[in-house]
Amino acid sequence: MELEKWFKTKKYPHIGLPITIKDYSWVKEYVESPKKIRNHSFLPLIHKTIVKRKFRADISISDINPSKKRKRVKSPPKVRDIFFASHLDALVLSKYNNVLAEKYEEYIEKKNFNECVVAYRKIPISKESHSNKCNIDFAKTAFEFLLKNKHNKMTVVVADVTSFFDNLDHKIIKKQWTKILGETFLPEDHYNIFKALTNIKYVEDEQLFERYNNEMIVEKGIPNSSTKKEFKRKKIESSRYFREKKVVAYCEKNEFLKNNLNLIISKNNKTGIPQGSPISATLANVYMLEFDEMVFNKVNLIGGFYQRYSDDLIIICSQEYENEIIEFIRDKISNLAKLEIEPNKTKVYRFEKLNGKFEGFEINELTKQPNFNKTLEYLGFSFNGEKVLIKSAGLSKFYRSMKGSFKKSTSLAIYSKNPDKSLFKSRLFKRFTYVGAKRKLIYQPSKGNNKIYVETKKYYWGNYLSYINKANDTMKSINNDDSIKGQSRKFWKKFNVLMKFHEARLKSK
């Protein structure tokens, strides 16, 4: 049986038990009925705050620490508010996202700015290819445009829209949504979804967790059965153990409606949609239609380049249009899109011939003073006019993830019931070394004979080293060497150092 594209089951805990493949028939009938959706009552979203600490090398301090690296300073943490819809609500939103995305593609494919909007879309690498472009390809397009104009003096403006999803104006959302559907007003089923996304009601995850005294509904196997499962309440020490303990729900739906309605918080703003819902990304593109068209036409008129990846904008033009373009972008973001550009995240770079070499460097937007130690950064890459490299922040994040996984694996080994107290080495090798870097089709046991493995439609997409290899191959036409791959050479040594350290730690216990 071929499943609809929108039917994507998730296992995150919410209000009510998760939906499975067994529910497909009734769910399909439900979400494809406009009458039922216009009367559908959405459960409150569950809100989580993700805080990422940020550390930067302090270039103002000449001293270095014992490891011969610059001392790092703690920057303000990056805070992201994520909202999760209940499992049925998520499928309703996923279905209507498909409808809206198809209408958006039909509309934009006729426009001259079609290729400028690159996030949340499936854009084939070529007409014959079944593979789609990713951030690597989009970054390469921008860098290649610069190289094609290496005999000119060029300016690059990279801007970041402030709190993008939180500031989308509800009137503009409704107007553009109606326009994409080709209607004069939103149909009742679409309008019900619009109301749910703009009149946000949510519950704080920790409050709901504490309401049940940290007891969650978990999925457990039934003795003497390899297929049957049961759901039981179990004490969970912390929300960070949800996945490990197979937590599937905070409570049943009827239980929540009966006892916990007082936990619901209403966010009655005139702006903002929940980041994390299945339809939010498509709505963001729909919202920016007029802005994208106007900016493209302006930049195209002066022979420039424009690309938008979600809330990241890049404009490349001749240096003579630098001030004009910056003012134009700020004006249209503010007056047309009713948004703001993050002042401290707006970077201006210049590329020109210096001492016979095409070089890029950052300039201060106000004073126009150059900083030759900083060069263009876009979509996770840096480009100095000659070489493309992965930003050091991405490599550092991978190493921190490696260290954290070793620490967690060691802790699990120490406190597990396994008498030999060993690390799960295969999992670590798969996540952090070349062993798991190869992308491949996933096989699973046949239903009729579990000794026979059959192909699935799922793929194992590899690890971060797979991404490095893909970036290296894609950017090789610019670099003419394996510069990007060379950035990963130290990871194997670091992995083995961590392995020896944590194995020694286990032996000492």
The 3D shape can be described as globular
* Uncertain spans: none
Helix content: 25-40%
Which range does the strand content fall in?
15-25%
Could you tell me the mean pLDDT?
A: 89
> Which class of secondary structure composition applies to the elements?
alpha+beta
Which strand order does the major sheet show? 10-11-4-12-13-14
Total number of helical segments? Answer: 16
Characterize the largest beta sheet: strand count, sense, and whether it forms a barrel: 6 strands, antiparallel
Radius of gyration: 26 Å
Question: How far is it from the N-terminal to the C-terminal residue, by CA?
Answer: 52 Å
The count of DSSP E runs of length 2 or more, i.e. the number of strands, is 19
Describe the structure.
With 509 residues, the protein is α+β, with helices and mostly antiparallel strands. Helix content is 38%, strand content 22%. The strands form five sheets. A six-stranded antiparallel β-sheet has the order 10-11-4-12-13-14, with helices on both faces. Strands 1-8-6-7 form a four-stranded mixed β-sheet. Strands 3-2-5-9 form a four-stranded mixed β-sheet. Strand 6 (215-221) and strand 7 form a beta hairpin. The radius of gyration is 26 Å and the shape is globular.
